[in-house]
């Protein structure tokens, strides 16, 4: 399937989670067997091109795509978790949200020897979460060679922020607006 055909599988829900927002819902994409397989295949190709030695996914929807890509490539999967979800001492990174802060965590033993890591999530908006994940993976000893997303909201500038931070960023599709 082409990126345009995949884009047609993404459902848009107006006014969620608040008025004026057009929520891009990937559940219709992952619920379409051929579409999901095609999206994973395209991401796997890009991860392979980036020299991936491990795939990291951001909780929660990044796990869906990231774990599938890692399995397809036969690579380790590194979960980037919300606080309190890992049963070992963790590396943690606080980051700013529009209203407040949040934290991401990773198992410090999940990445070894400066491995090339490709970061995957379902959507890139402002890039705050992805940038925090990149910093966290670097702290764990990884070299983030690329960030991949199913969807980019280019008007919010997140992919460009990643590129400015030295991480090439790609998405399978883009939706204008918020």
Automatic annotation (TrEMBL):
<keyword id="KW-0660">Purine salvage</keyword>
<dbReference type="Pfam" id="PF00156">
    <property type="entry name" value="Pribosyltran"/>
</dbReference>
<dbReference type="InterPro" id="IPR000836">
    <property type="entry name" value="PRTase_dom"/>
</dbReference>
<keyword id="KW-0963">Cytoplasm</keyword>
<comment type="similarity">
    <text>Belongs to the purine/pyrimidine phosphoribosyltransferase family.</text>
</comment>
<dbReference type="InterPro" id="IPR050054">
    <property type="entry name" value="UPRTase/APRTase"/>
</dbReference>
<feature type="domain" description="Phosphoribosyltransferase">
    <location>
        <begin position="36"/>
        <end position="144"/>
    </location>
</feature>
<dbReference type="InterPro" id="IPR029057">
    <property type="entry name" value="PRTase-like"/>
</dbReference>
<comment type="subunit">
    <text>Homodimer.</text>
</comment>
<comment type="function">
    <text>Catalyzes a salvage reaction resulting in the formation of AMP, that is energically less costly than de novo synthesis.</text>
</comment>
<keyword id="KW-0808">Transferase</keyword>
<dbReference type="InterPro" id="IPR005764">
    <property type="entry name" value="Ade_phspho_trans"/>
</dbReference>
<comment type="pathway">
    <text>Purine metabolism; AMP biosynthesis via salvage pathway; AMP from adenine: step 1/1.</text>
</comment>
<keyword id="KW-0328">Glycosyltransferase</keyword>
<dbReference type="GO" id="GO:0003999">
    <property type="term" value="F:adenine phosphoribosyltransferase activity"/>
</dbReference>
<protein>
    <recommendedName>
        <fullName>Adenine phosphoribosyltransferase</fullName>
        <ecNumber>2.4.2.7</ecNumber>
    </recommendedName>
</protein>
């Amino acid at each position: 399937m082409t990126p345009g055909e995949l884009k047609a599988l993404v459902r848009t829900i107006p006014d969620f989670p608040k008025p004026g927002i057009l929520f891009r819902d990937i559940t219709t994409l992952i619920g379409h067997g051929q579409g999901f397989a095609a999206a994973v295949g395209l991401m796997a190709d890009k991860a392979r091109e980036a020299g991936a030695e491990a795939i990291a996914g951001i909780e929660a929807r990044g796990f869906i795509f990231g774990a599938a890509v890692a399995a397809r490539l036969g690579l380790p999967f590194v979960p980037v978790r919300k606080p309190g979800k890992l049963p070992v001492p963790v590396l943690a990174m606080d980051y700013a949200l529009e209203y407040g802060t949040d934290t991401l965590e990773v198992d410090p033993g999940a990445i070894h020897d400066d491995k090339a890591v490709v970061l995957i999530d379902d959507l890139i908006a402002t890039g705050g979460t992805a940038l925090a994940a990149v910093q966290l993976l670097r702290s764990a000893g990884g070299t983030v060679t690329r960030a991949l997303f199913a969807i980019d909201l280019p008007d919010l500038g997140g992919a460009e922020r990643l590129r400015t931070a030295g991480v090439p960023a790609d998405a399978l599709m883009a939706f204008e607006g918020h």
